[in-house]
């Protein structure tokens, strides 16, 4: 009664505690439910905002606001250009008119010359006419000077237009820089993609790690099952021993009181054993449920992984398409840049040709003026003029040859520049290929190191598993040894007891044989009953297992239904929103109807037909809206019914939510550690990307500087050659002028004598002049044609430039839009990732499912009713199956209670039948057999122990070897650190040298510029000296020539120094790059070694933790073993006490028997009976 009462009190207490904890968890779940609703509402609002068209338009328009301003500025500049070109065209028309007038004047001049030929006889008239012609010529020259002034103004305007064009080119270069920045952003996006790929790899690694944990748990489960089987076998053995001892006791005991005490004690022991058994079974069930939950989580993670992989594949396809578009755009940009460069080069060549032509024209005009002056001064010197004409013709032919040579040189220079540009592009492409090859090599090395690391990890795990198994086997063998020694001791004791009992019980054997036969018959009956009860027990266990499985299936179905309920709720909310929208549309339609009515009343019957058509359309729309509203109302009613049904089922899911929370907490801890690792790798990748970008920028800057220096060098060389040629020409002209002056001084006295001869030759000179004027007219026509062609070329270039700029702007806009959309998608992904990290406790799977449901909600409206009907039918079927299962469970419980009652009754009968002696003999035989088996087991265990000790020594040796390897790795890491420090010192030293070389190069550049300025000043002085050379200045020319030669020599030496300095600079840059690359490789090797060391230390910590856990498990098993041993010792003490009581009873029986024998035959037996009663 006391035990029953205590059991009831404990059950009440447990029920109250359970109720308290369930209430607490229920309140917590309610709070979580409210929080979930709030989060879902916020997510829904965010998703609606994300798909809101106005928001998308705002996000797309915002970055394009500045682009519009740039386009306005470009339009304003284009308008300015148009105005300037119109002004230029007007001035060109004026210039053409003036040139026509000039041609007319020249024709009049020719007519005058013809009149001069007709009036040869009258010299005075000719001289007067010549004076008139000279005056007309002066007028024409004044007109020419005016025209030249106008030309200079037009050239200034052209220069201003060129400056505007340069500004536009600068703006184009800025836009190119912006394109470069966009390319950098694309590279960053690719780097983000690579980081996401690394995150996916890390997630795969974590999934594999979780699979390993599940395998470990399965192994631990198997070990627990083996331990439970061993404990059950041990329990059965102890039960057999207890039964045997109880049988011995029942044979030897005769009093009912002592037998009842022993029965009660055995019942208590059995109840304890059954409690232990139930506890073990409960632990097993919990472990099975945990394994099932882990498998479910694994499946859910696999589904999530598949979804993520699909999304990643879609993103990868989008990225590839965008990369293809970017590659096409880059190709187009490069082609346009090449075309622009070619056009610019052609423009420069045309400008140079025009400048040369203008110079030649100025030279020719100056020569004409000199000829006219000489004509006026000499009045008709024939021989010198003929020679001068011949020289002029030779000079004209030389100039034409020089022009042709200059064109050829220009074409050669253009081809050389193109070759150099192609070579530079090839060098850059080779550098890019080398970088790609280096990147591939590094990736291969990384994969090899990763594979080696995985192999090492597998081997270490295998060693750890082997070590744990050996330690477990060692502990089990030690426990078995202890059990065997205790059993040996017990067997020895039992043997001695059995020998004494055998001697004592030999007398009672004859009396107990009859009782033995009766007991055997009873035992047979009881064994039959026991077998039948065991079969019933096994059937009850099977039914209980089936019930638990069905319960798990029902719980999974309940989860699915809860998920369906959430989807239905969301669809209901969406339907309500759609209903509200439809109502708004209805109100809008009514307002429009009222407006139309008002218009109809105001405007009359003019638009009656249009209004009727609109009315019909509105009526159709109203009918469609009413039908849609009715459908939505029916859906809402069905959804509310399902909501009421499913609310009752949600409460049953609260317990499973708690388990899911526990699992989520463990997974969250793992996720935090994983996030830390991912953040570290992200930092490393960002640093590497920044270094790579910096190196690429430096390469681009250096290449542009090299191109600029080459162009400047070539321009300076061309200018220098031009200056040389002009100096030579000027020297030749000075010599010719000096000769002419000498000849003029000599022929002054002979002029009067040769006047007649000159008049004869004057006609020839006039003919030569006419030919020269005709040649001049041809040259002017050529110049006009060249100018026209130049204007046409410019117009074509401007038109092509405008077209290319428009194409470029269109491509840039498209590219900008694509980039904006990509940036928006990237920002959305980053936000979603941040929100997913915050909501990771419970909502990762729910959010994915909600997003899918939101995406497919418009499609699933029609199918919702069918699904609801199916779910209702399934619910009914499940409810009926659940009721059947409950009935079967109640029946099984009733059968189990009946079986327990029968078992208790049978136990009483069994305990009464254990009073037999033969079972003692059987027990003795069994003990002898067990003793022999225990001896064999002891020998085997000693051999196993020796082998295990050898394995332990081997493992210790391997551990020492691993420790030595670790020390060697640390030493190598230190050496690599020292190397990296040395490389950094060398890099700093080379950087200082590079700075010094750069400063030296800058100084040389400044000196070069100063020399160029000096050269320009000297050229100005040269021109002044040439003007003064007519009066005579050979000495100054020679001095200037000497200075020029010295300056040329200094300039050549400076160029050589500059070339040497640039070569040294390139060598230093190559050395710095090599050292930087070596330092990066050393740093990467050091980081790899550090990572390996950290991972090995983590493995050692995990191994230590596993060893500690195994030791704790061994300590628990030892405690259990000691507890069982103590219970056995208590049972043995009870057996000894019962044997002592039996011995006392036998002694009393013997004394009573001797007393009866000593009494006389006349006395009956009342006295001894009385004495026996007194003794009792």
Automatic annotation (TrEMBL):
<feature type="compositionally biased region" description="Basic and acidic residues">
    <location>
        <begin position="349"/>
        <end position="365"/>
    </location>
</feature>
<keyword id="KW-0787">Thick filament</keyword>
<feature type="compositionally biased region" description="Basic and acidic residues">
    <location>
        <begin position="916"/>
        <end position="938"/>
    </location>
</feature>
<dbReference type="InterPro" id="IPR027417">
    <property type="entry name" value="P-loop_NTPase"/>
</dbReference>
<dbReference type="GO" id="GO:0016460">
    <property type="term" value="C:myosin II complex"/>
</dbReference>
<dbReference type="GO" id="GO:0045214">
    <property type="term" value="P:sarcomere organization"/>
</dbReference>
<comment type="similarity">
    <text>Belongs to the TRAFAC class myosin-kinesin ATPase superfamily. Myosin family.</text>
</comment>
<keyword id="KW-0514">Muscle protein</keyword>
<feature type="domain" description="Myosin tail">
    <location>
        <begin position="69"/>
        <end position="1148"/>
    </location>
</feature>
<dbReference type="GO" id="GO:0051015">
    <property type="term" value="F:actin filament binding"/>
</dbReference>
<keyword id="KW-0009">Actin-binding</keyword>
<keyword id="KW-0175">Coiled coil</keyword>
<keyword id="KW-0505">Motor protein</keyword>
<feature type="region of interest" description="Disordered">
    <location>
        <begin position="1127"/>
        <end position="1176"/>
    </location>
</feature>
<dbReference type="GO" id="GO:0031033">
    <property type="term" value="P:myosin filament organization"/>
</dbReference>
<keyword id="KW-0067">ATP-binding</keyword>
<feature type="region of interest" description="Disordered">
    <location>
        <begin position="1048"/>
        <end position="1069"/>
    </location>
</feature>
<dbReference type="InterPro" id="IPR002928">
    <property type="entry name" value="Myosin_tail"/>
</dbReference>
<dbReference type="GO" id="GO:0005737">
    <property type="term" value="C:cytoplasm"/>
</dbReference>
<keyword id="KW-0518">Myosin</keyword>
<keyword id="KW-0547">Nucleotide-binding</keyword>
<protein>
    <submittedName>
        <fullName>Paramyosin-like protein 2</fullName>
    </submittedName>
</protein>
<feature type="region of interest" description="Disordered">
    <location>
        <begin position="804"/>
        <end position="832"/>
    </location>
</feature>
<dbReference type="GO" id="GO:0006936">
    <property type="term" value="P:muscle contraction"/>
</dbReference>
<feature type="compositionally biased region" description="Low complexity">
    <location>
        <begin position="1140"/>
        <end position="1155"/>
    </location>
</feature>
<dbReference type="GO" id="GO:0032982">
    <property type="term" value="C:myosin filament"/>
</dbReference>
<dbReference type="GO" id="GO:0000146">
    <property type="term" value="F:microfilament motor activity"/>
</dbReference>
<feature type="region of interest" description="Disordered">
    <location>
        <begin position="346"/>
        <end position="365"/>
    </location>
</feature>
<dbReference type="Pfam" id="PF01576">
    <property type="entry name" value="Myosin_tail_1"/>
</dbReference>
<dbReference type="InterPro" id="IPR014751">
    <property type="entry name" value="XRCC4-like_C"/>
</dbReference>
<dbReference type="GO" id="GO:0005524">
    <property type="term" value="F:ATP binding"/>
</dbReference>
<feature type="region of interest" description="Disordered">
    <location>
        <begin position="916"/>
        <end position="942"/>
    </location>
</feature>
């Amino acid at each position: 009664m006391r035990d029953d009462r205590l059991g009831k009190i404990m059950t009440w207490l447990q029920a109250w505690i359970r109720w308290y904890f369930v209430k607490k968890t229920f309140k917590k779940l309610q709070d979580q439910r409210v929080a979930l609703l709030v989060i879902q509402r916020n997510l829904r609002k965010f998703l609606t905002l994300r798909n809101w068209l106005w928001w998308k338009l705002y996000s797309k328009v915002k970055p394009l606001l500045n682009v519009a301003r740039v386009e306005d500025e470009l339009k304003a500049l284009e308008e300015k250009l148009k105005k300037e070109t119109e002004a230029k065209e007007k001035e060109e028309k004026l210039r053409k008119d003036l040139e026509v007038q000039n041609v007319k004047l020249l024709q009049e001049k020719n007519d005058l010359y013809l009149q001069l030929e007709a009036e040869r006889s009258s010299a005075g008239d000719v001289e007067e006419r010549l004076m008139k012609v000279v005056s007309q010529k002066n007028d024409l020259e004044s007109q020419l000077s005016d025209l030249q002034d106008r030309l200079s103004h037009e050239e200034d305007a052209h220069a201003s237009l060129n400056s505007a064009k340069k500004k536009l080119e600068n703006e184009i270069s800025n836009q190119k820089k912006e394109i470069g920045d966009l390319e950098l952003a694309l590279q960053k996006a690719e780097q983000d993609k690579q980081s996401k790929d690394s995150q996916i790899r890390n997630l795969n690694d974590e999934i594999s790690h979780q699979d390993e944990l599940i395998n470990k748990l399965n192994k631990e489960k198997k070990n627990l099952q083996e331990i439970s089987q061993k404990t059950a076998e041990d329990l059965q053995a102890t039960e057999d021993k207890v039964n045997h001892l109880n049988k011995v006791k029942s044979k030897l005991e005769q009093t009912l009181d002592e037998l009842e005490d022993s029965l009660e004690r055995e019942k208590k022991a059995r109840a304890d054993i059954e409690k232990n058994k139930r506890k073990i079974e409960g632990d097993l069930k919990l472990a099975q449920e945990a394994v099932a939950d882990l498998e479910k989580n694994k499946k859910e993670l696999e589904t999530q992984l598949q979804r993520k992989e699909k999304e990643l594949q879609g993103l990868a396809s989008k990225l590839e398409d965008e990369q293809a578009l970017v590659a096409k755009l880059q190709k187009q940009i490069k082609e346009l840049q090449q075309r622009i460069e070619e056009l610019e080069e052609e423009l420069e060549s045309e400008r140079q040709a025009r400048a040369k032509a203008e110079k030649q024209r100025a030279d020719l005009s100056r020569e004409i003026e000199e000829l006219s002056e000489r004509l006026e001064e000499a009045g008709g010197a024939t021989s010198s003029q003929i020679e001068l004409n011949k020289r002029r013709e030779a000079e004209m032919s030389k100039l034409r040859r020089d022009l042709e040579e200059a064109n050829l040189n220009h074409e050669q220079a253009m081809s050389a520049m193109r070759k150099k540009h192609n070579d530079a592009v090839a060098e850059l492409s080779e550098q890019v290929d080398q970088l790609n090859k280096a990147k591939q090599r590094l990736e291969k090395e990384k994969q090899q190191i990763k594979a080696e690391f995985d192999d090492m990890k597998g081997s270490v795990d295998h060693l750890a598993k082997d070590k744990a198994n050996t330690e477990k086997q060692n502990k089990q063998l030690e426990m078995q040894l202890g059990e065997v020694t205790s059993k040996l001791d017990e067997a020895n004791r039992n043997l001695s007891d059995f020998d004494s009992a055998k001697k004592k019980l030999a007398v009672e054997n004859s009396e107990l044989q009859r009782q033995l036969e009766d007991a055997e018959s009873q035992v047979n009956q009881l064994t039959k009953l026991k077998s039948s009860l065991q079969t019933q027990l096994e059937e009850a266990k099977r039914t209980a297992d089936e019930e638990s499985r069905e319960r798990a299936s029902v719980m999974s179905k309940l989860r699915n239904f809860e998920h369906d309920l959430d989807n239905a709720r969301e669809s209901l909310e969406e339907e309500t929103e759609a209903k509200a929208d439809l109502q708004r549309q209805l109100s809008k339609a009514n307002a429009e109807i009222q407006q139309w009515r008002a218009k109809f009343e105001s405007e009359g019957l003019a638009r009656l037909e249009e209004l009727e058509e609109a009315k019909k359309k509105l009526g159709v729309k109203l009918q469609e809206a009413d039908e849609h509203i009715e459908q939505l109302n029916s859906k809402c009613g069905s959804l509310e019914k399902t909501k009421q049904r499913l609310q009752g089922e949600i409460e049953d899911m609260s317990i499973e939510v708690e388990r899911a929370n526990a699992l989520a907490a463990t997974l969250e801890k793992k996720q935090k550690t994983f996030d830390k690792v991912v953040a570290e790798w992200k930092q490393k990748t960002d640093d590497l990307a920044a270094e790579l970008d910096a190196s690429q920028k430096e390469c681009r800057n250096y290449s542009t500087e090299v191109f600029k220096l080459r162009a400047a060098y070539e321009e300076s060389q061309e200018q220098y050659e031009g200056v040389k040629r002009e100096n030579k020409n000027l020297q030749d002209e000075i010599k010719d002028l000096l000769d002419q002056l000498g000849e003029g001084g000599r022929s002054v006295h002979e002029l009067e004598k040769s006047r007649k001869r000159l008049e004869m030759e004057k006609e020839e000179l006039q003919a030569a002049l006419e030919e020269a004027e005709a040649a001049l007219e041809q040259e002017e026509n050529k110049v006009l044609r060249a100018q026209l062609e130049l204007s046409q070329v410019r117009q074509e270039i401007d038109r092509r430039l405008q077209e290319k700029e428009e194409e470029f702007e269109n491509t840039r806009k498209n590219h900008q839009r694509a980039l904006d959309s990509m940036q928006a998608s990237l920002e959305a992904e980053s936000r979603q990732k941040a929100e997913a990290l915050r909501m990771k406790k419970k909502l990762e799977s729910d959010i994915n499912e909600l997003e899918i449901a939101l995406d497919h909600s418009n499609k699933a409206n029609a199918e919702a009713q069918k699904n609801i009907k199916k779910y209702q039918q399934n619910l009914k079927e499940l409810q009926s199956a659940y009721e059947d299962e409950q009935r079967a469970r109640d029946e099984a419980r009733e059968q189990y209670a009946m079986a327990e009652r029968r078992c208790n009754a049978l136990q009483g009968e069994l305990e009464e039948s254990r009073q037999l002696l033969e079972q003692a003999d059987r027990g003795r035989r069994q003990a002898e057999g067990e003793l022999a088996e225990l001896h064999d087991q002891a020998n085997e265990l000693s051999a196993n122990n020796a082998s295990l000790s050898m394995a332990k020594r081997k493992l210790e040796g391997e551990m020492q070897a691993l420790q030595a390897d670790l020390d060697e790795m640390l030493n190598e890491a230190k050496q690599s650190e020292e190397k990296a420090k040395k490389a950094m010192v060398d890099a700093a030293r080379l950087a200082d040298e590079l700075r010094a070389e750069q400063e030296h190069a800058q100084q040389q550049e400044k000196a070069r510029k100063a020399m160029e300025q000096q050269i320009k000043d000297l050229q100005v002085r040269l021109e002044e000296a040439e003007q003064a050379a007519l009066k005579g200045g050979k000495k100054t020319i020679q001095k200037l020539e000497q200075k020029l030669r010295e300056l040329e020599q200094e300039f050549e030496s400076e160029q050589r120094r500059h070339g040497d300095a640039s070569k040294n600079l390139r060598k230093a840059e190559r050395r710095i790059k090599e050292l930087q690359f070596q330092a990066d490789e050393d740093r990467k090797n050091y980081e790899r070694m550090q990572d390996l060391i950290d991972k090995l230390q983590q493995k050692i910590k995990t191994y230590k933790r596993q060893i500690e856990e195994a030791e704790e498990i061994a300590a628990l098993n030892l405690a259990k073993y000691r507890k069982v041993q103590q219970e056995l010792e208590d049972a043995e003490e009870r057996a000894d006490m019962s044997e002592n009581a039996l011995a006392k009873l036998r002694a009393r029986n013997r004394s009573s028997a001797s007393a009866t024998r000593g009494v006389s035959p006349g006395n009956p037996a009342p006295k001894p009976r009385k004495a026996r009663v007194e003794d009792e």
